[in-house]
Design a protein that fits this description.
The structure is a homodimer. The first copy, chain A, is an alpha/beta fold. Chain A is built from 14 helices and 10 strands. In chain A, strand 7 and strand 8 form a beta hairpin.
Chain lengths: 320, 320
């Protein structure tokens, strides 16, 4: 909600009435739908078709917030129609949904595009998470040795990490950073550091990122919010400068979903599959420290719940 | 969780390894499943069959907590088998699920029955809600004129209301109390004040309650947690003494689900259908006060989220 509310607020102030966006897992689409309603405008969501099909409940939730929701690729745009002609059941991707959203936005000055990750202003809005975490650690008179977050485009990770990174760069703090990714889209690990488009149809500005290529096919995973070809420019720069380590987990998602189950049994609530990657990485790091007899204070970032992803948990964990 | 944790804790201390219970909507079953896991024992849940069938995701959630979940009536008990012989697709009820649970508990000294509402110790554990609310109002330097909660057995309502009731009875506070019910089971409105069983098969002790009759058929609703024939003894006594007003909403649930939609759009999250009854009543009361030009501070109690009830919202609100 941190960047959804900010983007909706400024869009409404500029006289826009329709907030166009992409969504993968559907968490960002839900957040922007709610934010749009709060400022009296409407969200118009292009939702990766594979996920749209398997999460009917999240579609209803966005509609209850007042949003219009479309499966992407859609027949509403030239780029969508082109893909549907080639393959009527194209599963879509975040890059395709962004392309459709940008094209649809061009159709009217009432519309504005709101991106949910990658860009610098998104990281800025999300950084309230890290600012609050710094205050919380002050209250607890403690300090994290390691900060872990999941990374697709990088907004979740950037939100918690960047305020700490600032202090590390200024020499005020020692802290490590670990990005948890999926082997479906390990952009920080297997990507090339270069200028690339943020979208499939090459309508975005070029961004300097670790990228797998903006038209690369990535295997579908349940944590679709991570399935994006490039990490945001700030995250990529920090990776390039050696400030961020990265790890990627297999696309069968068993290891990460088991981590979510452990979290559920200890904390009581079900987290989103994306965040489960961060929890898996945090558990692995904690076990490694324990084995070495080291104490380590690990801060992990979790965003979004997984109550609308239970069918994914059932399938992956083979619950009868 | 307030009474789930307390009941699980004491059961484990007494050497029990299986916590047997009933559940209607599934919220209580989920809470006890989590609490059981936290103290290292197992929950064994008899779940009203109609709801078991329409909420497969909540079943998976209870299983992820470590629980064993059965549709009720079940073939595991004499009372269940008797009902299934008569009607193999008997939709069940909370009263039937309690009967099966009590019978199943009798089968082993390892087992103990944990009831989720009605009884005095449940109200006691839940009263932490009202105690905290009193502290919060002190911090806000305010005081509620009206407290609203939904009532099936009465634990949710009792939890928030009883600490305030104590102060009202002691002459320390003025405050009204309103119970929001479903016309499916308006026990405080159409019930008779008398001794009755808490369960269908007459295995419970007799309780002095407002009751519709322990074998009365009540029309199925989505807010199944409210569909119970009798309000708990303390709530019933306060109704009898004139301290609690009650209102009941139609079984099509349109009015209450619309209230949940209003709440979603303003507060961002989806509440359980049971709690939607309290929100409807609070909105209606607020509108009435507004029309009269009166200021009224209304405190309403919400328990449980509705993210696993979206199919119900979709159906009732006719969302395409």
């Amino acid at each position: 909600m941190n960047t959804a509310l900010a983007q909706a607020y400024y869009a409404q102030k500029e006289g826009k009435t329709v907030l166009v966006t992409e969504t993968g897992a559907g968490q960002w689409g839900s957040a922007l739908s709610y934010a749009a309603g709060m400022v009296g405008v409407t969200a118009f969501v292009f939702w990766v078709r594979a996920v749209y099909n398997w999460k009917p409940d999240r579609k209803v939730l966005m509609q209850m917030y007042g949003a219009k929701v479309n499966a992407s690729p859609s027949p509403l745009t030239t780029s969508g129609r082109k893909l549907l002609e080639r393959n009527p059941s194209d599963p879509g991707s975040l890059g395709i949904a962004v392309s459709e959203g940008l094209e649809y936005t061009d159709g009217s000055s009432e519309r504005v595009y709101c991106l949910g990750s990658v860009l610098n202003h998104v990281m800025l809005h999300q950084s309230v998470i890290g600012l609050e975490a710094i205050r919380q650690f002050e209250l607890a008179d403690d300090s994290p040795d390691l900060i872990v977050g999941s990374v697709g485009g990088g907004s979740n990770f950037g939100g918690i990490a960047l305020p700490f990174v600032g202090e590390v760069l200024a020499g005020k703090r020692h802290c490590e950073f670990l990005a948890a990714q999926s082997e479906s889209s390990p952009n920080l690990i297997k990507g090339e550091y270069k200028y690339d488009f943020a979208d499939h149809a090459e309508q975005s500005p070029l961004l300097m990122t670790y990228t797998l290529g903006h038209q690369t096919m990535m295997p579908p995973i349940r944590a679709d919010g991570l399935r994006y070809h490039a990490a945001g420019p700030i995250i990529s720069a920090l990776r390039h400068s050696g400030h961020i380590r990265a790890v990627a987990y297999p696309i069968d998602e068993v290891a990460v979903f088991e981590a979510a189950e452990i979290f559920l049994q200890s904390e009581g609530w079900l987290i989103a599959p994306e965040s489960a990657h961060a929890v898996r990485a945090a558990i692995d790091e904690a076990k490694r420290s324990e084995a070495k007899g080291e104490e380590k204070c690990i801060l992990m970032n979790i965003s979004g719940h997984g109550f609308l992803d239970i069918d994914a948990y059932r399938t992956v964990l083979r619950i009868e």
